Amino acid sequence: MNCLTTMVVGNGMIARHFQEYAERDDVLIFASGVSNSKETRPEPFLREWNLMQEWVAQAGDRLFVYFSTCSVADPTEENAPYVQHKLAVEEFIATHTKHYLIIRASNVVGGAGNPHTILNYFLNRVTSGEPFDIWQGATRNLIDIDDMYRVVTYFMEQKDRWNRILNVANPYSVSPLQIVRAVETHTRRQGNYRLIAKGSPFAIDTSDCAAILADRQHDLRPEQYLHYLLQKYY
After folding, report:
1. With bands split at pLDDT 50, 70 and 90, how would you rate the model's confidence at 31?
2. How do residues 42-68 score in pLDDT, each as one tens digit?
3. Can you tell me the distance from the alpha carbon of 134 to that of 120, in angstroms, rounded to the nearest whole number?
4. Which of 59, 143, 160, 170 is least surrounded by Cβ atoms within 10 Å, i.e. has the fewest?
5. Is the pLDDT of residue 3 over 60?
6. How far apart are CA 130 and CA 26, in angstroms?
7. Whole-angstrom Cα distance, residue 64 to residue 56?
8. 157 near 26, Cβ under 8 Å?
């Protein structure tokens, strides 16, 4: 079993962003999970499941913060192994911890690194010239990791808002084609893609975090926000 030498579990983008909580004794942040939402092999899911159980067993009276995904609301992903896994983990945490926050995050943007994030995927395809498909019927939701951090830490400090599932997302979703066109403008390169009739739009309830994000200095609307993210991180 892992010993409690840190209160932030993981070494990816989200875990690194929450490192100031590493020495806190009142909260345990679990940010170690399957990084590829298209994963199908059982081993990565089992690895996260076992690790999560170990840390839940040590949570005690601490607030257990888990990062899930808004994709659980996407009708095209409901049978995906990644979504089914996340739902099972959510249920386990909700029934085996005294205090918890389950963060269903949208597509978090924080710079180059994980090639499986949607913005990194499109950037890599456009800059490399590799062919790719764009689902015409889909919607995606991008949120800056700094904006996500602000929302999550706000709710972490509100004890009366614990023991719940919290959507953390931009009030505005975008089409994949909007993202690609913004990437093309930013990189000054033309993507090698084809439009295919796949995907379904899905709504994300952002009522909990909209007020917290509303006073940000940058505009959250798609065209402005995409430009802001690309300028900030790429």
Report:
1. very high
2. 999 999 999 999 999 999 999 999 999
3. 15
4. 160
5. no
6. 47
7. 8
8. no
The answer to whether the CB of 46 falls within 8 A of the CB of 25 is: no
Q: What sign for the dihedral angle of Cα 233, 174, 79, 94?
A: positive
CB 58, CB 31: distance < 8 Å:
no
Q: What is the CA radius of gyration of the chain?
A: 18
178 vs 192: CA distance, rounded Å: 15
Q: What is the pTM of this model?
A: 0.94
Q: Where are the alpha helices (DSSP H) in the chain?
A: 13-17, 42-56, 81-96, 118-128, 145-156, 176-187, 207-214, 222-233
Closest CA to 178 of 143, 135, 146, 148: 135
Q: Are 95 and 118 in contact (CB under 8 A)?
A: no
SS3 212: helix
Give CA–CA dist 174/21, Å, rounded. Answer: 32
> Which of 53, 31, 231, 36 has its CA nearest to residue 144?
231
121-170 per-position pLDDT tens digit: 999 999 999 999 999 999 999 999 999 999 999 999 999 999 999 999 99
